[in-house]
Design goal:
84 residues, two-stranded antiparallel ribbon, alpha+beta, Wheat Germ Agglutinin (Isolectin 2), domain 1, two-stranded antiparallel sheet, single chain
């Protein structure tokens, strides 16, 4: 009778331990604080590398490629690409 109880305990112990580990891991990961939402897509200036939102950048198309320029670099690029 004791042998049966001991065998049953040792047979179920790994499964119970596994279930406890999974439950604790799940509880700890669910308790993790919410992360801040993404700021949004930004673009890097092709001239100086400054990053800004799309609305603050000027686009210059050159042979099918689109380059984004900040307010400081855009006037210089527009003059350089202006065919006269």
């Amino acid at each position: 009778m004791v042998d049966t109880w001991v065998q049953t305990a040792f047979a179920w112990a790994p499964w119970v331990l596994f279930a406890v580990i999974i439950s604790v891991t799940y509880a700890l990961t669910r308790r993790e604080e919410k992360r801040a939402p993404a700021v949004g897509q930004t673009f890097a200036c092709a001239g100086c590398g400054r990053r800004a939102a799309q609305g603050q950048m000027a686009t210059v198309e050159h042979e099918g490629a689109v380059n984004w320029y900040c307010h400081r670099c855009a006037p210089h690029q527009m003059q350089a690409r202006d065919p006269i």
